[in-house]
Amino acid sequence: MEGVDLSKPGERERVVAEIKVIEEQRRAAAIARAKELGLPVRIEKPGGGVSEVADIDENGQLLYRTTYNLHAAISTGANLIRQTLPYSLSGNGIKVGVWDGGLVRNTHVEFSTSRVVHMNSTNLLDHATHVAGTIGASGISSSAKGMAPGVAIDSYDWNDDIIEMTSAGAASASDASRIPISNHSYGLTTQTNDAAYMGRYTLDAAKNDALLASAPFYLPFWGAGNDQQRLNAKGGFQSITFEALAKNVLTIGNV
Questions:
Q1: What is the CA radius of gyration of the chain?
Q2: pTM for the complete prediction?
Q3: How far apart are CA 154 and CA 115, in angstroms?
Q4: Fold for domain 11-252?
Q5: What is the DSSP letter of 179?
Q6: SS3 (DSSP) at 174
Q7: What integer is the mean pLDDT of 22-48?
Q8: What are the structural domain ranges in the chain?
């Protein structure tokens, strides 16, 4: 995608079509490999999270997308500027993309009518709804008020994330119909949870960087997933993997 100008008419459509062919072939091959090995394609996790086959690495290992643990957003300080003078920020007029292992429940009491739009057809997921609530719950329950309670949310399933991000991400200041920011509270892991990927710049990070170099008015927020379970393998360092290592995303780690 290097050198591509996504603000040019027709250029974005061409690039999306090319990426779509490649990504769908890779995922189909990964699903076929999982079935051949007798491994699950999708795993429902306790607490509402999921893992799902996404790709195969250069060593033939399956890569699974997996949702990350959810934590409260108290430390962001959003309450200091959210609907509070002199800032009075609410997110009104801003559209955020939320990619997850399923769709946000758009009938939830914290999301007013039509504020959450399903961008593809798949199952609802509690994890996605919780993430969207942290971002934009309206505050009917005061303890559940989101960081931007007036924001509009486009909800996507994660299977075609890089394709959909390329299609939806803003490439210029006048791209009002596209999204300027998105959230991704998930990441990749190998079937063996291989520590060799910790701190390693991979193709998945490079894909994000290439996209964002061509869409300079779009910024994804990506979960680091650095829950410290494997830090000893790297002496306490290099705890981030895959997409979150991209230099052009905003990676969110644990506090």
A1: 18
A2: 0.90
A3: 8
A4: Rossmann fold (3.40.50)
A5: B
A6: coil
A7: 94
A8: 11-252
